[in-house]
Amino acid sequence: MLILGAGQVRQVLDGAEREVVDAVRRAYQLHAHGRSELPHSVFLRFPQDARNRIIGLPAYLGQDSPVAGIKWISSFPGNLAQGLERASAALLLNSMSTGHPEALLEASVISARRTAASAALAAATIAPQAPQTGVSLIGCGVINFQVLSFLCTLLPELGAVTLFDLDRARAQSFAQRCAARWPELKVSVAEGAEEALAAHKLVGLATTAGTPYLNVDSCRPGTLLLHLSLRDLYPETILGSVNIVDDADHVCREATSLHLAEQQVGHRDFIATSIGEILNSGADYRRSESELTVFSPFGLGVLDLAVADLVRRAAERLDLGTLLTDFLPDGAQ
């Protein structure tokens, strides 16, 4: 059993944004071609505690060297007040020849970067007519910082970022980190969500919202909303927008905004297409200049597998991690 901690995972992934995006792109394309197995994620919730949860994401990805495994990720938003990360995770990879568990990786880093890579890939793929020179980020946490990192890699014309968080100190700290990391960016902190939504035609939503709250009337026509937290938007917003998803069966669950919209109208006709279908078409996709476009990725386990496999292979080349040789019982037991 190869065990890789967070520092070793970061060692592989830091500066590897394009490699991560390529892994995510391939996973989306393989999934759209039916070369995956993706059971519904399992949500473990707790009595008298609606805010916290742990999610299990089993998956199989039939790439040239197939990979199977499961990510087990917790979300405890109250951790932030204690100076802890909201999310923590572990990912187990299994051998495709014996079924034996063969690698255990710290996975909150993997999860954040595959989420950010999928958002940046969507922004680059669901493109407007004009260059995207600015982005608004609502929710100033780990995910949106990584989103900005991947956007800066894929959208070299990006020159401005507008931030908003209910915790203004958190937004200002985020702005300072951005200025230190990307001194060429013009960084500003908005007074309210409406100001942030109006600032740019590309918006990243990564919050801990459990129910819809966001009025999007201040969005410019042609805005792309990267709806990563999945529960920010009212069903009416979803129904009035062009909707692109990663997988309709997965995203229309667990009281997401799209699930609420489906319950309201009794169908999923409001979903236009999936990111995998767009990528597999080979044609340029130009988003509407008059309507809102919403990208709502549930966060497919195959993305975690693709990035975890990338990390594992690099770790083996670099001789990173701890190899535990007696994890499994021997054949005599």
Automatic annotation (TrEMBL):
One GO MF term attached to the UniProt entry: ornithine cyclodeaminase activity
Keywords: Lyase
Top-rank taxon, per record: Bacteria
Pfam family for this entry, one: OCD_Mu_crystall
EC number: 4.3.1.12
One of the GO BP terms on file: siderophore biosynthetic process
GO cellular component: cytoplasm
Keyword presence, DNA-binding: no
NCBIfam families: dehyd_SbnB_fam
Protein name: Ornithine cyclodeaminase
Organism: Kitasatospora kifunensis
Higher taxonomy: Bacteria, Bacillati, Actinomycetota, Actinomycetes, Kitasatosporales
